């Protein structure tokens, strides 16, 4: 047996580090490679190859092959099902990795078409060749804003030609999948290990829409435990089957959630499992987190989401990020420091952490408790002439300059580096990072907040107190789990645009007691508070029966527990 031997290609290691297509010590944990020989067990790769490669799979592509973890099982399966007529194309940026893959696979030149370089740079050539029957692998996980601009420009050019709207905020794994769809043959398949961001992040919305428009069937396998705990990155397996033209139909979607990878290998026959799983469908803009709900809860949530009396929060209020000071340790100070600097007229109360917001009302007493143990005043020099600033504060500003606070990016772009922009007192606060449940909190203390808490300004004619009460219902809490995104640590995060999409059963005339809800929440009786609000809002206003209400609440609890318990 002969094999293709590639001469090592000279690559500028400094340039590679700029491209960030391989792991460096400086790369954030969430941006390390999940592909190739780093974090993808050969057993998982073999499982996917066994599903994807069948008798009709004579052309297979691995677009980021690493040192060959996916290539080995793919090659073995191809040798069994179509030994006389197959080609396996393997693309890899790093010379050392592709040479390692060659040494591991011992493939002949006829069997593997080795291509050294970047997937996006090879893409035009791939498009001009025959389409592929199977694409398999685990694309790299790096933000576009952190890769070489030339490679990014090439990738964006290809994405635009495929009618996508690329953004630097996206991650290149999504682009790998988006372009891979374009390379597939009719009835083609994809079997990929992807970050669970596929289910929920905004930048993957175009990809989710394209997937359901392009395949007959999609199976998504999730895990209750982290498959790769060293990097705190939740992953899913995407198995898409039956590539077709976009004729307006949507994919039949099946989901399986397992404890961990071992349960997948031991007990799951995919062909048998899919036949007995309920079929689910998505709608435009829908995130896929809710697909992992049990069938009855998914159905209840989808049905009530179409109720005509629901309005997005953005119709009732504007949600904005909190203050971005540029250096909280300088600008946010304790009350004793306010006194020492003679800064009472140059500061205002500020909430710096969600834990300070206990219930539906944040009042003066709550702020007093917060300020006794935390920095709780933000310096505000806006519209103040320098000559009117006390010497004590001028010295403090000079101290900040000696410490280099003024050289930080956010400070350096200001006309006066110490003027924090967009300081205002909101009507309410909204949790940005959520553990048990989100809250909309009325701002009776007349404080502002750092960017750990969102600021909310209600529209004209909307009562902040009424909105805070109605917000705390089982449907809105469930929708927060669907609209937001969660990470390995179990925290749910809502960005302003996601928060403004939360469904609110709004009726300004509802008679609801905020003091009662506030008291229940402060005493830890959130279920009793939910019972009270749901009886008025979901039952009395929307007309839902008790069975539907309990299914919706169960959907919230199931989604919440799913993210909290993931370890």
Q: Structural class, from helix and strand content? A: alpha/beta
Low-confidence stretches: 1-40
Question: Which percent band covers the strand fraction?
Answer: 15-25%
Give helix % range: 25-40%
**How would you characterize the largest beta sheet?**
8 strands, mixed
Number of strands: 22
N- and C-termini, Cα separation: 46 Å
| Number of separate helices | 23
- Strand neighbour order, sheet with most strands: 3-2-1-4-5-7-6-8
**Gyration radius, rounded:** 27 Å
Could you report the average pLDDT, rounded to the nearest whole number? 87
Principal-axes geometry comes out as globular
What does this molecule look like?
The chain is α/β, with parallel strands linked by helices and 567 residues long. 38% of the residues lie in helices and 18% in strands. The chain is built from 23 helices and 22 strands. The strands form 5 sheets. An 8-stranded mixed β-sheet has the order 3-2-1-4-5-7-6-8. Strands 10-19-15-17-13 form a 5-stranded mixed β-sheet. A 4-stranded mixed β-sheet has the order 11-14-12-18. α6 packs parallel to α7 and α12 packs across α23. It is globular. The chain starts with 12 loop residues before the first helix and ends with a helix. The N terminus is likely disordered.
């Amino acid at each position: 047996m002969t094999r293709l031997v590639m001469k090592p290609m000279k690559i500028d290691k400094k340039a590679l580090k700029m491209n960030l297509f391989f792991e460096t010590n400086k790369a954030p944990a969430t941006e390390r490679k999940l592909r190739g020989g780093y974090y993808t067990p050969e057993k998982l790769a073999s499982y996917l190859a066994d599903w994807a490669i069948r008798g009709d799979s004579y052309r297979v592509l691995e677009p980021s092959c690493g040192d060959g973890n996916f290539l080995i099982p793919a090659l073995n399966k191809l040798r069994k099902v179509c030994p006389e007529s197959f080609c396996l194309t393997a693309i890899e940026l790093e010379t050392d990795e592709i040479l390692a893959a060659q040494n591991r696979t011992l493939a002949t030149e006829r069997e593997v078409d080795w291509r050294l370089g970047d997937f996006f740079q090879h893409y035009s050539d791939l498009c001009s060749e025959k389409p592929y029957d199977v694409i398999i692998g685990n694309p790299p996980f790096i933000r576009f804003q952190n890769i070489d601009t030339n490679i990014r420009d090439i990738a964006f050019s290809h994405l635009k030609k495929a009618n996508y709207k690329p953004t630097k905020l996206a991650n290149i794994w999504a682009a790998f999948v988006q372009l891979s769809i374009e390379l597939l043959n009719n009835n083609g398949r994809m079997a990929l290990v992807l970050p669970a961001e596929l289910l929920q992040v905004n930048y993957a919305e175009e990809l989710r829409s394209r997937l359901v428009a392009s395949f007959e069937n999609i199976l998504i396998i999730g895990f209750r435990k982290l498959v790769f705990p060293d990097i705190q990155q939740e992953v899913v397996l995407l198995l898409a089957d039956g590539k077709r033209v976009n004729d307006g139909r949507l994919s039949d979607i099946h989901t399986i959630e397992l404890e961990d990878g071992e349960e997948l290998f031991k007990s799951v026959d995919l062909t048998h499992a899919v036949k007995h799983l309920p079929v689910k469908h998505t709608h435009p803009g829908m995130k896929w987190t809710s697909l992992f709900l049990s069938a009855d809860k998914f159905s209840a949530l989808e049905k009530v989401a179409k109720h005509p009396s629901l309005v997005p929060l953005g119709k009732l209020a504007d949600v904005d990020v909190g203050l971005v000071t540029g250096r909280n340790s300088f600008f946010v100070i304790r009350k004793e420091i306010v006194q020492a600097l003679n800064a009472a007229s140059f500061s205002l109360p500020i909430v710096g952490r969600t834990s300070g917001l206990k219930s539906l009302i944040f009042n003066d007493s709550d702020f007093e408790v917060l300020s006794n143990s935390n920095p709780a005043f933000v310096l505000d020099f806006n519209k103040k002439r320098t000559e009117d600033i006390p010497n004590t504060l001028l010295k403090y500003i000079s101290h900040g300059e000696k410490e280099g606070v003024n050289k930080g990016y956010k400070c350096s772009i200001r006309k006066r580096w110490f003027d924090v922009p967009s300081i205002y007192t909101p009507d309410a606060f909204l949790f940005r990072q959520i553990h048990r449940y989100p809250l909309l909190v009325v701002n009776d203390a007349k404080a502002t907040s750092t960017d750990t808490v969102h600021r909310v300004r209600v529209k004209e004619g909307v009562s902040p107190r009424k909105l805070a009460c109605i917000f705390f219902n089982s449907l809105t809490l469930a929708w927060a789990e669907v609209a937001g995104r969660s990470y390995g640590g179990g925290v749910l995060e809502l960005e302003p645009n996601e928060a403004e999409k939360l469904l609110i059963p709004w009726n300004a005339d509802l008679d609801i007691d905020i003091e009662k809800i506030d008291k229940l929440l402060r005493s830890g009786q959130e279920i009793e508070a939910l019972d009270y609000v749901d009886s008025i809002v979901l039952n009395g206003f929307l007309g839902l029966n008790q069975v539907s209400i309990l299914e919706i609440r169960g959907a919230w609890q199931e989604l919440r527990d799913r993210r909290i318990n993931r370890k």
